[in-house]
Write a structure and sequence with these properties.
This protein is globular. It starts with a helix and ends in an 8-residue tail after the last helix. It has a five-stranded mixed beta sheet with strand order 1-2-3-4-5, covered by helices on one side. The chain has a two-stranded antiparallel ribbon with strand order 6-7. With 161 residues, the protein is of the alpha+beta class. Helix 2 crosses helix 3.
């Protein structure tokens, strides 16, 4: 499982001069597969924010024993001491972070079946581009080859486990 966590689902957005200004991180099951994997993700996210790199986290996997209040709480606890509790009916998290001073988090809890929200990808404290997550997902799924769709929709290959 740590092998999957090491294959980061991450996109870096760079300034035209080459400096990374934002990162989009798609959390995978491997990121939550062990305490080490989760700590690695949380520490990397917090370090990006400390370095002034903005962040968009998409975590569509339920909290585990290692992140009981979701990935946002685990990351935000590294940055500041503010209370946060996921709503019981919306255990999944999408969050946009502005790495300016003061650091800010825009958190959207979601549930399975909800449309994904559009969130900002901050380029600096005031400038952002919208990330239309639902439209992007739908467009990607529409262009997905049928054999891949079948694996995603029926990972057991029709076998009961």
């Amino acid at each position: 499982p740590d092998l999957y966590a090491s294959r980061a689902n991450r996109i870096a957005i760079k300034h035209r001069l080459g400096r990374i200004v934002a990162v989009i991180e798609i959390v995978s099951p491997g990121n939550k597969s062990s305490q080490h994997a989760l700590r690695s993700l949380v520490e990397k996210a917090a370090e990006l924010l400390r370095q002034g790199i903005n962040l968009l986290i998409v975590d569509l996997f339920p909290p585990s024993q290692r992140d009981r209040q979701g990935i946002h709480k685990a990351i935000w606890d590294e940055i500041c001491d503010e209370p946060f509790e996921l709503p019981r009916d919306k255990p999944l998290t999408v969050a946009a972070y502005s790495a300016g001073e003061p650091k800010a988090a825009y958190v959207e809890p979601v549930a399975i079946g909800d449309e994904l929200p559009a969130l900002p990808i901050f380029l600096d404290q005031r400038i952002y581009v919208p990330a239309p997550l639902e439209a992007t997902y739908r467009s990607t799924w529409a262009g997905c080859p049928q054999p891949v769709r079948e694996v995603v929709e029926n990972p057991a290959g029709g076998r009961s486990s």
